[in-house]
Amino acid sequence: MTRMIFPLFAAAALSGCASLSDSLGLERGATKPAAAPAPSEAAAPTPSAQTSAAPELTSGANTAESLDTTTAEEREAATKAPAAAGTVLGETVVSLGSATEPGLWLKTPLVDREQPGRVTNPATGKSAAVTLIPIEGPPTAGSRMSLPALRLIGASLTDLTPVEVAAG
Q1: Closest CA relative to residue 165, chosen from 74, 102, 86
Q2: Confidence of residue 14 (pLDDT cuts 50, 70, 90)
Q3: For 118-141, what is the mean pLDDT?
Q4: CATH number for the domain that contains residue 74
């Protein structure tokens, strides 16, 4: 059986050599690759071009402002103080969730069903009304927050921020 498999394996392995040599620029029977073309002088960056200022953002660039699809009225309503304090669910560390997913929400393992809630950033004292959305994980696991909600509570979009979560 091995007498039949080995020749087939060798033939398959050697058949790849022809396409490999073609892709490396080797001619049949040649022993070294063809010389690579020299880069043109015009294509080489000048030292002053390398040390110039950072490139400007294009007009189509995504910024936090352009990705925040909430209206001024929605932001105002979310930051109003609640009439009654809700049930404190605990603390969690949040990071930015999907920046393109609209709305004010927190995906957290602190809840087992979707419900209204409030998130407070103890560092800034700012809070926002959000929709609490359950995700799998232990209650000590981190959570993901919408871009508009992070902006409302004054949290960094790139850092991990500890927040207090309340239901209701």
Answers
A1: 86
A2: low
A3: 94
A4: 2.40.40.20
Whole-model pTM: value is 0.57
The reply to whether 54 falls in a domain is no
Whether 52 is covered by a domain: the verdict is no
Q: For position 58, what pLDDT does the model report?
A: 47
Full residue range of the structural domain in which residue 140 is found: 70-167
